[in-house]
Amino acid sequence: MEQLVESLNIDLEQERKDILKKYRRLLRTAKPFLKDNDAKLIKKAFYTSVDAHKDMRRRSGEPYIYHPLAVAQIVVEEIGLGTTGIVAALLHDVVEDTDMGIDDIERLFGKKVAKIIDGLTKISGRFEYGSSQQAENFRKMLLTLSDDVRVILVKLADRLHNMRTLDSMPRDKQLKIASETIFIYAPLAHRLGLYSIKSELEELYLKYTEPQEYRAIARKLRETKNLRDRFISKFMEPIAQDLESAGLNFILKGRPKSIYSIWNKMRKQNKPFEEIYDLFAIRIVLESPPESDREKAICWQAYSIVTDHYKPNPDRLKDFLSTPRANGYQSLHSTVMSKSGQWVEVQIRTSRMDEIAEKGYAAHWKYKGNDTKVKGNIEQWITQVRETLENGFGDKTAAIEFLDEFRSNLFNEEVFVFTPKGELKVLQAGSTALDFAFDIHSEVGAHCMAAKVGGILVPISYVLNNGDQIEIITSSKQKPNEDWLRIVVTSKARARIKDFLKEENRRYETDGRQFVEKKLKILGMEATAEVMNQLRAFFECKTTTDFFYRIGKGYIPIDDLKRFKRDRDAKDKKAAENGAGSNAAPATGTDGKALTKYLKQIHGDRADSDTLLIGDDMDKIDYKLAQCCNPIAGDDVFGFVTINEGIKIHRTTCPNAAELMSKHGNRIIKAKWSGKDEAFLAGLYLSGTDRVGLVNDVTRIISNELHINMRGLTIDTKDGVFNGDIKLYVQDTRHLDILINKLEQVEGVYNVQRFDTNLSEK
């Protein structure tokens, strides 16, 4: 430790002053919340954390205590938690990183704090094949959420600070942490109504995964700032005058959309920055006594004033005043046409609604005396999480399945429907009549035959629309079947259907397991957990239970296990040919650590010895380019260790990257291109206005000017507009960029974009 301090030339006295300065700032921010002995308790937690982390430093070289202090500051300043949250934030890493145990925390700080810390402490030890430490840790944290939502709020603060300080981490760690953030934590922040934190997490994700695009959009936003400010000022002027004349107290805010949301829109709409028109939103925040009868009235009054000056888009009015989102968000949204012909989004809300929109769940405690409806929506969601935990996700092997189920609950949009008696029900967007039936009661769902919407008979697969009034038709003879799992989207319905099927399926699972064990014995193979998981992956089943069920049902013929053995033997033979003993490549299905160790062995003392070299290492390690994203030389990539198919190389921007890194971080390895000349299959999408000779001009550039081989060309024209797909072989991303630039200059071509799917040779 002393050597590290000397090598980094650290001023310990200055660090002590900085630590105390941060601590005093924390106390000043928390002062309005503090009661009785709260300050003493925070002081005790601070000194306990300082002592526990005294010999620890972050990767940046800073004292580790800076991190818990920063997390506590976020907890109080940006989320709005009180003393228990601050104490838990200061101590959140103590049990995981030091000798102090949960019992010690409970003795010093009480049961509530101990429970939160326990939920935040990662599980250590080895995990079985097919399980995921990341998924299991998340599931453990969610178990605590059922009792105390502060465990998630502290975790979000922890994740936010980690993302803010990601610069000091190596590139592969940056990608893993950023992917986990966008996959789980940003949607979770959204679900709890923490919009500012959600937006920052998304921005930071983009900053580290797509740095060039992030910087390009940020630069364009800076360049257009003055123009945007003038537009906003001119747009707001007549509205402000009328609001003042009406005697309303208000604040007008004009803000650009987040870089992430602009990037997302550019990607989804296939448009450049210049063609994304709704780059900013106007917010009108009105002063009103909290939960007074006037709150909704003044919002609608302000809406009337806005539409006196600007024509609204009737399809873009969203009333979250009467029907708040499940996370408690209330606001009135409208999109109006400005005098310059530009669409502008206007959000209208009161100061109470604005605070809840920014601080989410934590802000409810400030208004909890009257705010039962809004708070109740979030409590209802937490109840759903509790039900998901309690239904079929008890063992560790189910952690990944639980993670999928939980993510389906983090929906952004809801659908508002009514029972025959007029009771409002809020369900996940995309919910069906069968989801609605299970939401009413498990028995109603289990016996659901059909439904009536507006008096018209519809099937159980009918997708609900806002305002539908639904009557469920049941039959005592009806019972759930497996197809129902493809119809429903809500976790409650899925859990209930699985419960009904479980008893019937158990017999098939038992039979299937016995058949498999008997067949493996005949084939001379041992029925280990590793082999079972390889079988699961080989036959593309989600879980080993699902695999046994399919065998028991006869969906997978038992003799097909011979194919698995042949495939496995062939891979073992290839591995044996490539090396033996300590120099042999690790077996298929191993984790990333074993492969990284092997790479260091074969690469020696090189600086990048822990990295798979694509092109050079083919004769030593079995890998393939993933068909989901079709990487080409020059793309930023990583390796993913599959169960049965060796290593697959994915782009860091692959649609599946966030999920792979979030669920299976232990199976990710570093990879880069070796620089060997090779041809890679790539796809380009073109669109524009049709003319005679267009195809000839496009093919001339590809074949004659750049000497690129094409594998396929499809052009479709309709009413003077063309859309085309080209599949071709390129050397690397630079080669592809040159081609894209040349094609964009062809007369009539308006858009040229790389696409990743359906490029396989199959």
Describe what this molecule looks like in 3D.
The structure is a single chain. The protein is α+β, with helices and mostly antiparallel strands and 762 residues long. The protein contains 31 helices and 20 strands. The strands form five sheets. Strands 1, 2, 3, 4, 5 and 6 form a six-stranded mixed β-sheet that branches. Helix 14 (225-245) crosses helix 16 (294-309). 36% of the residues are buried.
Keywords:
762 residues, alpha+beta, five-stranded mixed sheet, 20 strands, 50% helix
- SS-based structural class? alpha+beta
Taking the alpha carbons of the first and last residues, their distance comes to: 57 Å
Mean pLDDT: 82
Give the fraction of residues assigned to helices: 40-55%
Shape: globular
Uncertain residue ranges: 124-131, 368-376, 392-397
What is the tally of beta strands? 20
Report the β-strand fraction as a percent range: 15-25%
So how many helices? 31
Described by strand count, sense and barrel closure, the largest sheet is: 6 strands, mixed
Global Rg: 29 Å
Protein name: RelA/SpoT family protein
InterPro entries: ACT-like_dom_sf, ACT_dom, Beta-grasp_dom_sf, HD/PDEase_dom, NT_sf, RelA/Spo_fam, RelA/SpoT_AH_RIS, RelA_SpoT
Function: In eubacteria ppGpp (guanosine 3'-diphosphate 5'-diphosphate) is a mediator of the stringent response that coordinates a variety of cellular activities in response to changes in nutritional abundance.
Family: Belongs to the relA/spoT family.
